[in-house]
C-alpha cells in the first residue's frame, strides 16, 4: 500500500508543479504586454523584472494556494465517491469538511491572482491608493476595490456553479497519448471555456456593485476615491476571472492526465512491495488503482503477448495455474458484484427483474396424479399436527404482563406516527430515497466493468491459440455465465427514470448504458465466433444456451 500512495503522491505533485509553472508563465506574459520590442533598454528592464526578488515574493502566496488547491483536488479524485441516498444526505455532503476548505481556497486563490497581477503589472489607473477629493490623505481607489472584490466573488461563484455540482470523477482517455500532446490539445478549448464562464460572474458583480457600492464602503469603513468605472476596469475584471478559471481547468486536466496514465502491472510479483494485476483489480477502496488495473487488463489481453504467456503459465514446482486463478477470481468477482448491485438497485427502484407472473411451467397441472400427491402430502402433515386444545392443556397459557402490553402499545403508536409523519410531502422530499439514485451511482462505475469485460473475453478467445496448458478452458463456463447474466440485467434496466432530470444527465446515462451493453455483446460475440458451435457443449443452464445460440446465428443486435 505504501507503493500506491507514494506513486499517486508523485503523480499529483508533478501535476501541481506544472500548474504553478503555468501561472508563472502567465504572469511573465502579462508583464511584457507593454514592452517596446524595438527598444533594447525595455528588454533589459523586462529581464531584470523577471529575475527580480520583488516579482517572486508577490508570486509565492499564489503558488502556495495553488499547491493547496491541487492537493485537495487530488484527494477528491483518489477517494471513492460516496453514495447519497436522500436529498438530505446530498445537502449534508455539500457542507463536508473538504467542501468547506475548498470554499475558503477558491476565493482566496481568485483574490490572490487579482492582487498579484495588480501588484506586479498594474498600470497607473490600477493603483491601490489615490488622492482624495475632500482631504489631503490617500484613499483607496474605487477601481481597485472593484477588481479585488470581483476576484473574491468569482471564486465563490466558481465553487458553487462548478465544483459543488460536478461529480469530480476521473475521465480516462479513449487513446492514451504523450502527456505533452494531451495537455496541448486541451489548452485552447480550456481557454475558450474560461472566457465564456468568466463573463457571468463579472456581469453579476458589476450589476451588484453599481447598486450597492455605498453599502460595501460603509460595511468595510473604506475611504474611497470615487471614479467612473470605464470599460478598462470591466475588461481587467474579466481578464483576472478568466485567468482564475483557466488555471483551475488546467490544474484539473493535468491531474487527470497524470493519474490516468497507463500503468503496466506485473502478473507475477517480483518485489515484495510491487502490486500485481489481480491485486490492483481487487482494490475497491482505491477506485483509481482499480480502474488502472482494469484498463491494463484490457491492454494485456489485446496487445501484450509476453505477459499473456506469464498469465497462462504453470507454477514451478507444482504445475498449478496460480496466476490465472488469482486473476479470474478477482475479475469474475468484480463483474458478478456489479451485476448483483444492478439487480438490487433495479428492485429498489420498483422494477421487477424476475417475472412473477404464473407460467405453464411454474403452475401445477391439475392431473389426478398431482391431486393425489397433494392429498397424501396434506394427510401426512395432518397426522403430525396436534390438537390446539391439547397443546394449551399441556403447556398452559401464561397471561401477558401489563408492562409488555404497554410497551407494545406505545411502540405501535410511535411506528404509526413515524409512518404518517414520513408521508408528509416536505419530509418525504428531503428524507425519502431519491428515485434511481443507487442505479445511477452503480452505473457511474461502468468504465472499469467495460474494460474488465473486454479484457476477460479477449483472454478467453486468445487462449484457444496461446494457452498450451488449458488453464482457461476450465473457467470458460463461468466467464460466459457472468457475461450473460450481466447482459440480461442490463436489458431489464428502465430506459427512463422515475423523475425529471436534466437532458445532459439523461444523455450521459444513456451513453454509459449503451457502451456497457455493447462491450458485453462484443465480448460474447468474440467468444462465440472463436469457439464456434463448441461453445454449446459447455455445462451451462438452458437459458444461457439459448442466448448463445442467438450470438452464433448473428441474431443478437
Explained architecture:
There is one protein chain. The protein folds into two domains: 258 residues, no CATH class; 195 residues, no CATH class. It has a three-stranded mixed β-sheet with strand order 1-2-3. Helix content is 69%, strand content 2%. The radius of gyration is 33 Å and the shape is globular. The longest helix is centred in the middle third of the chain and has 42 residues. Helix 6 packs across helix 7 and helix 19 runs antiparallel to helix 20. By secondary structure, it is mainly alpha-helical. About 9% of the residues have low confidence.
Question: How would you concisely characterize the structure shown here?
Answer:
By secondary structure, this protein is mainly alpha-helical.
List keywords for this structure.
557 residues, 3-stranded mixed beta sheet, 2% strand, mainly alpha, globular
Using only C-alpha atoms, the radius of gyration works out to: 33 Å
> Structural class, judged by helices and strands?
mainly alpha
Form type: globular
Overall pLDDT level: 80
| Number of discrete domains | 2
Order of helices and strands: HHHHHEEHHEHHHHHHHHHHHHHH
Please mark out the parts with pLDDT under 50 across 5 or more consecutive residues, or reply none.
350-397
Span between termini: 43 Å
User: What does the main sheet amount to?
Assistant: 3 strands, mixed
Portion in beta strands:
under 5%
Total number of β-strand segments?
3
Question: Helix count?
Answer: 21
Helix content: 55-70%
Adjacency order of strands in the biggest sheet: 1-2-3
Amino acid at each position: 500500500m505504501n507503493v500506491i500512495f507514494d506513486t499517486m503522491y508523485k503523480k499529483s505533485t508533478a501535476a501541481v508543479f506544472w500548474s504553478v509553472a503555468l501561472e508563472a508563465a502567465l504572469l511573465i506574459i502579462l508583464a511584457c504586454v507593454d514592452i517596446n520590442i524595438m527598444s533594447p533598454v525595455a528588454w533589459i528592464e523586462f529581464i531584470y523584472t523577471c529575475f527580480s526578488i520583488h516579482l517572486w515574493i508577490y508570486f509565492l502566496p499564489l503558488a502556495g494556494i495553488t499547491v493547496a488547491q491541487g492537493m485537495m483536488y487530488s484527494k477528491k479524485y483518489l477517494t471513492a465517491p460516496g453514495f447519497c441516498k436522500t436529498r438530505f444526505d446530498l445537502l449534508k455532503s455539500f457542507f463536508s469538511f473538504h467542501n468547506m476548505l475548498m470554499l475558503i481556497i477558491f476565493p482566496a486563490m481568485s483574490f490572490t491572482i487579482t492582487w498579484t497581477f495588480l501588484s506586479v503589472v498594474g498600470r497607473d489607473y490600477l493603483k491601490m491608493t489615490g488622492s482624495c477629493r475632500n482631504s489631503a490623505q490617500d484613499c483607496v481607489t474605487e477601481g481597485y476595490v472593484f477588481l479585488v472584490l470581483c476576484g473574491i466573488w468569482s471564486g465563490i461563484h466558481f465553487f458553487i456553479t462548478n465544483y459543488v455540482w460536478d461529480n469530480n470523477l476521473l475521465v480516462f482517455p479513449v487513446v492514451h497519448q504523450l502527456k505533452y500532446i494531451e495537455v496541448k490539445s486541451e489548452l485552447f478549448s480550456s481557454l475558450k471555456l474560461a472566457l465564456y464562464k468568466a463573463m457571468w460572474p463579472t456581469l453579476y458583480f458589476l450589476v451588484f456593485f453599481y447598486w450597492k457600492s455605498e453599502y460595501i464602503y460603509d460595511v468595510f469603513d473604506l475611504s474611497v476615491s470615487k471614479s467612473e468605472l470605464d470599460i478598462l476596469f470591466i475588461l481587467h475584471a474579466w481578464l483576472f476571472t478568466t485567468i482564475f478559471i483557466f488555471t483551475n481547468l488546467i490544474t484539473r486536466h493535468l491531474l487527470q492526465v497524470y493519474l490516468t496514465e497507463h500503468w503496466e502491472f506485473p502478473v507475477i510479483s517480483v518485489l515484495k512491495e510491487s502490486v500485481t494485476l489481480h491485486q490492483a483489480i481487487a482494490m475497491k477502496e482505491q477506485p483509481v488503482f482499480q480502474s488502472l488495473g482494469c484498463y491494463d487488463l484490457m491492454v494485456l489481453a489485446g496487445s501484450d503477448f509476453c505477459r499473456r504467456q506469464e498469465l497462462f503459465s504453470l507454477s514451478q514446482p507444482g504445475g498449478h495455474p496460480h496466476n490465472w486463478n488469482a486473476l479470474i477470481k478477482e475479475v469474475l468477482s468484480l463483474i458478478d458484484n456489479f451485476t448483483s448491485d444492478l439487480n438490487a438497485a433495479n428492485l429498489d427502484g420498483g422494477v421487477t427483474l424476475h417475472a412473477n407472473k404464473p407460467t405453464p411451467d411454474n403452475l401445477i397441472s391439475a392431473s389426478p396424479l398431482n391431486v393425489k400427491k397433494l392429498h397424501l402430502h396434506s394427510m401426512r402433515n395432518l397426522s403430525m399436527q396436534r390438537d390446539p386444545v391439547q397443546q394449551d392443556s399441556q403447556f398452559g397459557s401464561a397471561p401477558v404482563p401489563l408492562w409488555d402490553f404497554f410497551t407494545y402499545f406505545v411502540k405501535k403508536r410511535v411506528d404509526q406516527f413515524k409512518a404518517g409523519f414520513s408521508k408528509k410531502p416536505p419530509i418525504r422530499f428531503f428524507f425519502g430515497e431519491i428515485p434511481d439514485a443507487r442505479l445511477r451511482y452503480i452505473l457511474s462505475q461502468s468504465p472499469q466493468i467495460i474494460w474488465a469485460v473486454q479484457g476477460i473475453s479477449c483472454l478467453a478467445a486468445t487462449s484457444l491459440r496461446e494457452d498450451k496448458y488449458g488453464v482457461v478452458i476450465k473457467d470458460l463456463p463461468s466467464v460466459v455465465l457472468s457475461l450473460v447474466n450481466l447482459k440480461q440485467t442490463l436489458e431489464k434496466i428502465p430506459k427512463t427514470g422515475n423523475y425529471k432530470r436534466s437532458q445532459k444527465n439523461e444523455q450521459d446515462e444513456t451513453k454509459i448504458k449503451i457502451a456497457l451493453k455493447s462491450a458485453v455483446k462484443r465480448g460474447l460475440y468474440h467468444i462465440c465466433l472463436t469457439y464456434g458451435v463448441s461453445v454449446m457443449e459447455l455445462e451451462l443452464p438452458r437459458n444461457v444456451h439459448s442466448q448463445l445460440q442467438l450470438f452464433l446465428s448473428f441474431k443478437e443486435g
